[in-house]
Amino acid sequence: MIAAAHASAGLGAWLVHRAPSEHAIALLRDDPVLREVVDAHLAALYREALAFVDNHRAAIERVADALVARRLLTGEDIRALAGDVAAGGAT
């Protein structure tokens, strides 16, 4: 999806349409610059995900524990367990 965004939708380093989205993966094989840009984008998203987990570990663990215990949670259950995370705050 990130390769397609960069290569097809002009949502990355280039404001041009380089390939249809279904050809973005092939373009990754052939274009080392695109591969580097996509790699950097994925690395940044990975860092964001790690920071999110670090910042909200307690809420994530509460949801995980409840899932193990109950096997099914509603959206309301998750909102109650997650606390401020759903509202954009840190828990």
Concise account of the structure shown:
The chain has 91 residues and is mostly helical. It has helices at residues 2-7, 24-30, 32-55, 57-70, 75-82.
Helix content: 55-70%
Q: List the quaternary state of the chains.
A: single chain
Structural class: mainly alpha
Overall pLDDT level? 83
Runs in which pLDDT lies below 50 for 5 or more consecutive residues are none
**Tally of contiguous helical segments:** 5
* Rg on CA atoms, Å: 19 Å
Instruction: Specify the biggest β-sheet.
Output: none
Shape summary:
elongated
Instruction: State the order of secondary-structure elements, H for helix, E for strand.
Output: HHHHH
How far apart the termini lie comes to 30 Å
Number of strands: 0
Protein architecture, described:
The protein has 91 residues and is mainly α. Helices cover 65% and strands 0% of the residues. α2 (24-30) packs across α3 (32-55).
